[in-house]
Amino acid sequence: MDGCRIMTFDGGGVRGALTARVLSRLSENTPNLLKQVNMFAGTSTGSLIALGLAAGIEIEWLDQLYSVELCRYIFKRQSRGLTQPRYSLERLQKVLELVFPLNLKLKDLEYNVLIPAFKVKACPENRNSWGPVFFSNLSDTDDQDARVIDVALASCAAPIFFPSHQNYIDGAVVANNPSTVALAYALSRLSGREGLPKMSLISLGTGYLPKRIQGNTADWGAWQWYFGADPPMPLVSLLFSSAAQTDYLVTDYLLGKRYYRLNPLLHDPIGMDKYSKIPQLKRLADQLDLTPVLRWLHSFW
What we know:
Strand content: 5-15%
Number of helices: 12
Helix content: 40-55%
Distance between the termini: 14 Å
Number of strands: 7
Radius of gyration: 19 Å
């Protein structure tokens, strides 16, 4: 291969509206951008974008998928207690059926794709334990016949928010930023280990808000780590945030200048189900200065 180009998409619920709009703007400025991709990878909401692009769906259509109306439908609360998921996956599935043919399988996709999820029962690598699963249509995987809709639902099944799907939960618990996993798969299955110098990877996040703990944590116990308010649920926030940052550092170490991370700064916290914030997210994407990433694409894509 002359080169291997990878594009990855983070999880983040409705913040996928930011990703889709930024990508739409990038494709307008670089007409062959998406056609040149060798592999798409996405987690949770990013899996919807990755699978859609791998199926040949226009990014403009995926941008429209992140509308207030559709997301309000998806995030219609069915439970306010602590013993049931807040939302139903059935509503998300009905929206996905507007995008993907019901029986479309991974092997039918036009592009290579990688989608993280986590199996809470016996996983393929260890029948006695739970573990991560990376759905892919690469030639030597066992996932060729998996339905695209099932893969998307598995990767989007965020605990608390949605029920598990076929014993899978949200891929964000292992790879909210799937760049390092995508890079490893591409090396082992697309170009071999000697292909690292030929790889370029662009990673699109769903926006970030800097976080830190202001107080002294030396005397913290379970209550403070689990239920602290600044930031909310600090241990959970730390685990998700630190994993994405680690992925960035590792991928940057491996690829150097051939890696670009685009993850805009948010002005305030936006939860994964806050569909009322979608117009704000799209405005942020429309106002973003794309000059640096366009310069990188010209040099390294």
